[in-house]
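Follow-up to my earlier ticket, as requested here are the two runs.
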Amino acid sequence: MSDFKNNNLKSEAQARIDLAACFRWFARLNMHEAVANHFSASVSEDGSQFLINPKWQHFSTIKASDLILLDTNNPDSALLAKIDPTAWAIHSQIHLLRPDIKCVLHLHPIYTTTISTLKDPTIRPIDQNTARYFNRVSYDDCYQGMADSNAEGKRLASLLGKHSRLMMGNHGVLIGSHSIGVAFDDMYTIERACQVLTTAYATNQPLRLIPDDVAEKTAQDWESIEDFSEAHLEEIKRLLLIQEPDFME
């Protein structure tokens, strides 16, 4: 297992294991979309080389060795044929344009996607989890169909701005991070946050928003405990090692 206090670029072998664990666990949480959606992790400083899942393989079956290594400087047509074109369009552009983002997770989880369909998809701070995203999410309000072109990938990457999270309007969510562990925990938490927000909206009662200064302080506190996020993935890997050890193969 990796040292969760080390947030530096991981070796390819370790990145494969960590990413495979993410696939397995999000399948257990029913946050996958049939055999679609995609996660990536860069294994080069400039983001040109990254790992990604093969198309149409169920998340619950993915092993470390199944992940495909792509190189944007030398795209291999045989390898590109093995991945979803939208995966290439989105992940290649984000890793190239934002090399600080080492891991990119894209899902259509029920509650976060529900919030993405609202006229105002802002994750409003009503509890500790929603406050994690206070002024820290970019929003795309112009769904343009399947993101299967480099131009669309560039558009999405540009929308991130200074952030690493993108609420994709009428589509889903994209989470980026310098760390696979942090991205994993972030994706888990944003879905929990949106579940709380969706449930609150369903009551038709006025929301009691957390004051801006408290929400900002809470978001900063979240950013100061990345070891918590790393530990979350480490614990998941320990469970998988007992229950589904083949994820490391």
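Run two:
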Amino acid sequence: MSIGTERADRHEYGNTHESYTYTDLPHLMGMMTGDEKHGPAATSTLDVLWVLYDRVLRVGPERAEDPERDRFLLSKGHGPMAYYAVLAAKGFLPVEWLPEFGSYDSPLGHHPDRVLVPGAEIGSGSLGHGLPLAVGTALGLRAQGLDGPGVWVLIGDAELDEGSNHEAIAYAGPAGLDRLHTVVVDNASASHALPGGIAARFEAAGWSAETVDGRDHEALYAAFTAPHPGRPRVVVARVEPKDA
């Protein structure tokens, strides 16, 4: 893990809100209390989310409506604590909202709601929806002639138990959706084994695929920025097993 080596530079589209760093995220997550936190599910995504928002995604609170922004879709929406912490760290939402997480009148619900959470592109929580929505988003941007924005979707390995995702995988490869990027956070939660592993399933459908340590920031960054002309890209981020 590269906690001490986070780069100071930001992409030209990136967030300029730099009051918080990666080392502040445990504190920000700790501000969120109550039942049904899904802490392990959230923690498994923390490093992926940070590297994306800190170093890769061309998006920020000042560009939330920019047609040229990158789109990030959180499909693994039943563990949003890390997502909220990163959005707060990057200035999308006030840190003061965090202690009210999950309360009756808080915009920060146990599942993120795109009409309530600044920066959220979709409402999510029900597994298996995010990747098909990302495919549709990539197709919509292509139809509008917007070939600059990237579409990123974070899914959990257990979501690959859902048939909707396999339909999306099978379609996106032959369609050549090279602006589509999927990150699978693999904490060994899937019920059904995939012959050859998760990356092989995507490769069989024509995707560019790579498996990396989901806690290694430099490995994640390299995998996220690797070229993949003409093909969608998947990065499988392996983290500690859910019950470890």
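The only thing I checked on run two: The two ends are 18 Å apart (CA to CA). Let me know what else you need.
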